[in-house]
Amino acid sequence: MVDGILNYLWLVPALPLLGVIVNSVIALFVERPLLLAEEDHGAPSHGPSTRGTSAPMGEGHGASHAAPAYRKLVAFVGPAVVGASFVVSLLAVLALAARPAHDRLFVQVLFPWIQAGTFFAPAAFQLDPLSSVMILVVTGVGFLIHVYSVGYMSHEKAFARYFIYLNLFTFAMLLLVLGSNFLLMFVGWEGVGLCSYLLIGYWYEKKSAADAGKKAFIVNRVGDFGFLVAVFLIFWTFGTVEYTEVFGKIPGLAASGVLTTGIATAITLLLFVGAVGKSAQIPLYVWLPDAMEGPTPVSALIHAATMVTAGVYMVARTNALYLLAPTSMAVVAVVGAATALFSATIGITQNDIKRVLAYSTVSQLGYMFLACGVGAFTAGIFHLMTHAFFKALLFLGSGSVIHALSGEQDMRKMGSLRKHLPITFTTMFIATLAISGIPGLSGFFSKDEILWKSFSSGHGHVGLWLVGTAAAGITAFYMFRLVFLTFFGDSRMEPEVEKHVHESPYSMTVPLMLLAVLSVAGGWIGIPHVLGGYNYFEEWLAPVFAHGAEGAAHGGAHASAALEVLLMAGSVGVALCGIGLAWYLYRVRTEVPKEIADRVPGLYDLVLNKYYVDEIYDVAIVRKIVNGSIWLWEAFDTAFLDGIVNGIAALVKGAGERTRRLQTGVVGNYAFSLLLGAVILVGFLLWS
Amino acid sequence: MAPISIDAAALLTSVQSIVPEIIVVATAIFVLLLDLAISEEKKHLLCGMGLLGIGVALFSVYALGQGRIEGFSGMIVHDGMGAFFDVVILSACALTFLMATGYSEWEGTHKGEFYSLILLSTSGMMFMAKGTDLMTVFLGLETLSIPIYVLVGFHRNRMSSLEGALKYFLLGAFASGFLLYGIALIYAVTGTTKIPVLATMLYDPRILASPLFLAGTGLLLVGFAFKVSLVPFHMWTPDAYEGAPTVVTAFMSAAVKAAAFAALIRVLLVALPGMQPVLWKVLWGLAVLTMTVGNLSALVQNNVKRLLAYSSIAHAGYILVGLVSGDVLGGQASLFYLLVYAFMNMGAFGVVMLIAQKEDEGYDIANLAGIGFKYPALGALLTLFLISLGGIPPTAGFVGKFYLFSAAVKNGYIWLAVIGVLNSAASIYYYLRMVVYMYMVTPDVEVAVPRPPRILFSMALCASAVVVVVLGIIPRSVLEIAERSVLSLLM
Amino acid sequence: MTGPADVIFYVLAALTVGSAIFVATLPNIIYAAVALLFTFCGVAGLYVLVSADFLAATQVLVYVGGILVLIMFAVFLSNRISSVKLSNPVHFRLPAAAICLTLFGVLAYTAISPAFVLKQEITYQPTTARIGELLMTRYLLPFEVASVLLLAALIGAALLSRPDRPDIPRPDMEEPK
Fold first, then answer.
1. Is the CB of A665 less than 8 angstroms away from the CB of C88?
2. Contact B339/B478 with Cβ under 8 angstroms?
3. A190-224 pLDDT, tens per residue?
């Protein structure tokens, strides 16, 4: 009977899609005529200040703003569909949990999608422990962020359009995690990407926003290429792309020698290229900080809690393949650890509150990959979940700050907000404690499990542990720097801004409080055995990561409980040191950071400018490609043939000349090309 | 001399096998005559008449059913494959007419000759797609080409139109020569031009190895490669596409390509499977070259028509990927992609021609700026067609490309698939560049007001959009039809 | 084995190829057109030599009587054509010659390959009746399709050559350099 709810699994993605449809109708038939009419009647009262600035701040908030009825409808539909989807997800997961552990796999085939001969890819949803965690995070955190958006975007003109994108994103993300095969995952993968560009470029009038959208787009091309080629390789090797079949076939094919380590390595490395693009890891992380041009709830939902973790989900999903490819595992672990440390250091110097959080996200994603790379997939997913809670909270809190400060994002112009924004401060402080790994909070359990596994697992290494622990210390440092700069000390606000400072409406603070609860308690389902807890989370995911657990346990045998506690204490100590340092530098001796920056200007600038990675990419890659393609086009279409025919002299002479004209005899060149091709083609056939 | 005996039953079957073609030709003549009878204001009736004829022809294809009807002593056959391409070509023609209702209004192409040339060209395409004799294929090719040459140059007061037409004509004649010479050489070795008979002759290894036959095959390929614009036989494409009236460009890009590929598929799968061990290298090289040159050239274009021209070259490369392996899966993928391509590409051209104010300068990419918000429906449609062309799910373009590349992968051409995917990834850059212009670039001047779309024009765009979306989500039935079509060849 | 037939063949071949070279190289288009006449006649002769009587007659009628005359008319009726030097620029010659020679080599290689199915002896029979019969039976479809093709060509030609409406100015065709 309980199982019955599983048959309604399709509702989980369908509900947000319904929201898209309803909101589209509203946007097209109600909102657009209004906007057009407004444009015709000159600038509206709240127009100029909202459009073209980075935060949706009008002059008069709240009561003065009588929202038209349609906005209320949108404000209801947008969050409600996601909330309903969360309820369905929750019921479905409970139904799944009621089943015995070995039977926790439910596949709902909607319709046969692609079929040819033996190849078959249905449109089907797969609910298993892994995807259940993901849908709960996506719909749960997503719902809170939708609610928050109602308040945050209330001054925005294109209100319905925003919720179309947000609902559409939720739909695509659910497709990604629920799809029962690699193709459907790819559909969701592209879908979330598309929504991400749309939302980054939401304030498209801002050039930087449009540019950021484009940058995210181009960088993700690289990743998508890897993903798609990997899917083809999987198809080639297994003859199917359906998860259950692929993973079911692995032992047999590995035994028969069809699935060699080489192929497994190729597949997993290509998949990892996709994950690196989507989850912003070295070397493709550059797009994520720029993506902060989008509205803050978007950063919370897409660029912290859900989309960027798709790469982690994908690696975890294919854990059985990764375990066959030790090289890939090592690559994943090293890239993850390096990213964790590298972007944490950048986080120290950033002054834009959202950029600090962006680099922090990149760094935390690095942790998740580190976990996957050492075979601790459970820990990776665990951290994915807790990170979704506290990072969403941090972003939403920063949004609340930005909202209160009329769009100010520079932390140097904040300070002493503790008094003005008590709820925002409290909740953000909790999240900061969580991300710093203070014992008892969610971040502590997940991060510590990663660090422990990176040390003790068979795939682990003490170097990885050291890097991870160092990054944890730096994380604690820059997060407390953020808190101290924002909420403590003297006010450095512009007087004009200070007058308007106010706590955000309930639609924004209630999600903050709920997320704060989750940030604290979210980790309690995975308390390690050594601390006397029972790791429900690990047990829940065990069926999916059966192989992974083996791998991790294999090497873990030699490690003792005492050592685990010792390392745990060590990492907490490092975090406390980071906090202490931040306290000392930003509360006690506030002049020191400036001095340090002055004393080692080269290093400081290097880090402040994000190691100049963007610039290096621009010179080394983007320009080369653009120049290369221009060259190729010119070379092939004009210069190559003209060069042969007319000789170098004519080429130089006619450099500026339009060569397309009939009269210059270019038709002759075309014919020449045709003839040349024919001779080569026929010649080749005769030769071979 | 004995009198020629006429087998009435055979003649009836023969006529039956070309009923759709007869209807199309009859419509062409009727439209031409009707043009003389009606006044200047009622010229749009011509378009309606044409549409009616196409509708009847489509119905006749449906009525003829799945069976195999051979006619004219093996010159032509109406089989699954023929029916499939009849539908593709007629649909492209119908879309052209629907769009022409609007286009002719503002560009002054409401002329009987215009429509009847399109219809005659369509009939040539259908003959080509159904021809089982190289003679029929060649005559079909010429019948499709001659009207197209004229249509490209239809705008006699535009230099680029005339230039494109002349270039296309000169080179087209050249390429036809190659094709004919290839047919002659093949005839010289085998003594036949019938495609199924050729297949049986090729069991003889001596024929397969004879230089005469190899050269004939090569020249035949050159002729086809020219028509589907494979690199390096593609040089005419950007000029002709840019110069032609846009509605003709749309027609060419979809229908001509479909017809030429139909004949190529028939020849490759039926007559030349024995040559596959050699031919795949040639096709592999052509596919890679075409995809790469097409996409890289498209990256730097600022004229939308030219951009889509290079994109269409690249797509010919993708479709060729399905033919490299020479098996059913690949052929089926190519068929499916040709169908999808016809709709998505014509849809893209449709929106673009609506946005452009006038030929030539109207097609600068900067004209797209700001369209997305001012005209959300147009913006959304163009975005849909472009992401489908780029192969992003959940559109039909993605399913089609996935099929093509997985066919290559299944037959072990991994690198071909990798190059294809890489190309496809690069191509998304220039498609999305247009989307970026629509949504993220603020126009320098007031957003141009597109001409009010007529109901029929809107129907064409919506129909294309529906096909692109539906075939992206539930492509199965059409894929099965494509599979049956390819299998019908091999029976 | 050299017989009178071979001698005739070589004479005709020399006539055809030689005049074709003149067509390609003569700078004056009228001379080139006249040279083309000899090429066509040479080809017609070759047809006769392989007992293709119908083809030879058609060749003379259509090419010499129709197409060549048409070319002449077109040349004479085009204004300003006499002042235009219709020849390829000089720098085309070398690569063009190279590629054409290569193509010639490839085709010659195929032609002398032993794969040709050679008829043992040529029987001289009239072919016209047989061709007519075939056109009405086996090749009925191509015959009919050809008529569609001609119709299309006719419409196209009429369309392109019909004078413009007076309100639309003719484009100013640039003179070739």
1. yes
2. yes
3. 888 888 887 877 776 666 666 777 777 777 777 88
Answer whether A333's CB lies under 8 Å from A370's CB: yes
Interface contact A679-C102, CB threshold 8 A:
yes
**Domain residue ranges of chain B, discontinuous segments joined by +:** 13-490
Chain C positions touching B124 (Cβ under 8 A) are 145, 148-149, 152
- pLDDT bucket at A642, cuts 50 / 70 / 90: very low
Given pLDDT bands bounded at 50, 70 and 90, which one contains residue A82?
very high
Closest-approach residue (CA) in chain A for C110:
A686
* Cα–Cα dist B319/A642, whole Å: 29
Residue C99's closest chain A neighbor by CA?
Answer: A676
Q: With beta carbons less than 8 A apart as the criterion, state whether A286 and A614 touch.
A: yes
| DSSP sequence for A38-80 | HHHT---TTHHHHTTSSS---SS-GGG----HHHHHHHHHHHH
Three-state SS at B392: coil
Q: C-alpha distances in angstroms, C38 versus C7, C22, C29?
A: 18, 10, 15
d(CA A159, CA A305): 22
Tokens linked to A641: 């043939």
Of C92, C106, C177, the CB nearest to A668: C92
> Locate tokens 């429509």: which residue?
B115
Residues 36-75 of C with CB under 8 A from A: none
Residue A481, amino acid? R
Neighbours of chain C (3+ CB pairs under 8 A): A, B
CA distance B76 to chain A (A): 28
Residues of C in Cβ contact (< 8 Å) with B243: none
Mutate to test the interface with A, among C106, C110, C173 (most CBs of A within 10 A): C106
Core vs surface per residue B423-444: b (16+ CB within 10 A) or e? bbbbbbbbbbbbbbbbbbbeee
**Pick from C96, C102, C174: CB nearest A663:** C174
**Mean pLDDT lowest among A333-347, B203-217, B432-446, C39-53:** B432-446
Of the candidates A382, A250, A384, the residue with the CA atom closest to the CA atom of residue A322: A250
- Residue ranges, chain B, pLDDT below 70: 1-6, 445-450, 452
pLDDT class for A645, splitting at 50, 70, 90?
A: very low
Q: How far is A189 from chain B (nearest CA, A)?
A: 9
Whether B206 contacts chain C with CB within 8 A: yes
SS3 assignment for B67-96 = CCEEECCCCEEECHHHHHHHHHHHHHHHHH
Fold of C4-125: Four Helix Bundle (Hemerythrin (Met), subunit A) (1.20.120)
Nearest alpha-carbon partner for B322 in B381, B421, B409: B409
Q: What is the mean pLDDT of residues C18-31?
A: 83
- Give the residue among B227, B216, B282 at the shortest CA–CA distance from B258: B227
What ipTM does the predicted assembly reach? Answer: 0.90
Distance from CA of C3 to the nearest CA of B (A): 25
B474 contact residues in A (CB cutoff 8 A): 111, 113
Contacts of A647 in chain C (CB under 8 A): 91
Rounded to the nearest 5°, which phi and psi values hold at B203? Answer: -70, -20
Choosing among C93, C99, C100, which should be mutated to test the A contact, i.e. which has the most A CBs within 10 A?
Answer: C99
Interchain CB distance below 8 Å, A685 and B215 = yes
CB contact at 8 A, A438 and A575: yes
CA nearest neighbour of A127 among A658, A512, A490, A543: A543
Which of B113, B146, B157 lies closest to C153 in CB terms?
B146
Cα gap A283→A268, rounded to integer Å: 17
Sequence letter at residue B239: D
